[in-house]
Amino acid sequence: MQQHPITPEQHLVAHRGDRAGGIENTLAAFKYAAAAGARFAECDIQFTRDLVPVVIHDNWLKRLCGQPDVKVMQTDFADLFTVCAPHFELLTLAGLLHWLQSQPQLTMFIEIKPATLRRLSAGGAVRRLAAMLPAARLDQIVLISQSATIIETCKQQLDCRTGWVAESHRQPGCDIDYIFMPYNRSAAIAFWHERGVKVGLYTVNEVAPASELLAQQVDLIETDHYASMAASLA
Questions:
Q1: How do strand 161-165 and strand 141-145 relate by DSSP bridges?
Q2: I want to staple 15 with a disulfide (CB 3.0 to 4.6 A). Which of 43, 74, 222, 231 is the partner?
Q3: pLDDT tens for residues 179-231?
Q4: Considering the domain 8-233 in this protein, what is its CATH number?
Q5: Rounded Cα gap, residues 220 and 161, in angstroms
Q6: Torsions phi, psi of 135, nearest 5?
Q7: pTM of the predicted model as reported, rounded to 2 decimal places
Q8: Where are the domains of the chain?
Q9: Of 182, 174, 81, nearest to 122 (Cα)?
Q10: What confidence tens digit (pLDDT) does each residue in 84-143 have?
């Protein structure tokens, strides 16, 4: 049987960008991944105290900035930007979306962190996002979350694809386009494929397990090192 070559750009997701290009969730990291040929990237968003959506994973800034007492949701954007500045340039969702307009080949998975619900209702958060998301670029965006409530609200209010990060107990009651799971749950790939849902697994940074997962027909693999992983798999 003829073996078809692997096409990494069809399967790899630049998880928070590519770490070779810069700190996670920064524009430099996303630009590096795109320049290396990435067709998919993933980012995280949270809201500051003054309700500016920013691209950052952790609510506490101990890991990223050495500030164990600073929380994103309890800090205004201007102050948060200053705290982050010695370590990285804090990216706003508006800034990311502006750049995305110049990258028509790139699909961005935007993960809305559940902590958002401590500041806003799901409806309030999604309405704010809807006002920012350009209608002409909705085909480039997939809104994902651990929160079933957030996903259900996105499905009701926005004409875009959605995905569930399967780390919470309640599964969304609406249809989803994607599911993201830890890579050690690859046995569930067939289950979700039978339901018409594409499967993404995270976070895989070594070539051998990535090759094994591709052989199991996984749709997407999230990696912190897009460029080097793509080159190795190709």
A1: parallel
A2: 222
A3: 999 999 999 999 999 999 999 999 999 999 999 999 999 999 999 999 999 99
A4: 3.20.20.190
A5: 15
A6: -55, -35
A7: 0.96
A8: 8-233
A9: 174
A10: 999 999 999 999 999 999 999 999 999 999 999 999 999 999 999 999 998 888 999 999
Q: Which single residue is written with the structure tokens 């480039």?
A: 140
Length of the chain: 234
Look up tokens 């609406």; give the residue: 174
| Residue whose structure tokens are 């102050």 | 79
